[in-house]
Amino acid sequence: MSILMSPPVAISAGEEFSLALKDDGTLVSWGADLNYVPTPYLTNVIAISVGMRHGLALKGDGTVVAWGWGYDGETNVPHLVTGVVAIA
Predict the structure, then answer these.
(1) CB neighbours (10 Å) of residue 26?
(2) Global pTM?
C-alpha cells in the first residue's frame, strides 16, 4: 500500500528531495537530505514549494512554514508575514 493512500493534489521537486501534498492537507517527502517534514507544524497545508535544499508549505491560515538547509536565510520566515495566498 502506498504511503500517499490517495492521489496527491500537488507535487514539488527540489535538488535532492520531493514533496507531495495530500488532499487532507498533510505532506509526504522522499529523497536524499531532506526526506522529512516538520509534522508538528504542518496541518491544513494548501500549497507547497521546494527549493534547492529547503521546503515551503503554505497553510490555510495564510502562514508559511519553511525547513531544511537555510544557509542564506531561506528558511527564516519573518513572523510578520501573514495573509500569504501563494508561494513559489
Answers:
(1) 16
(2) 0.84
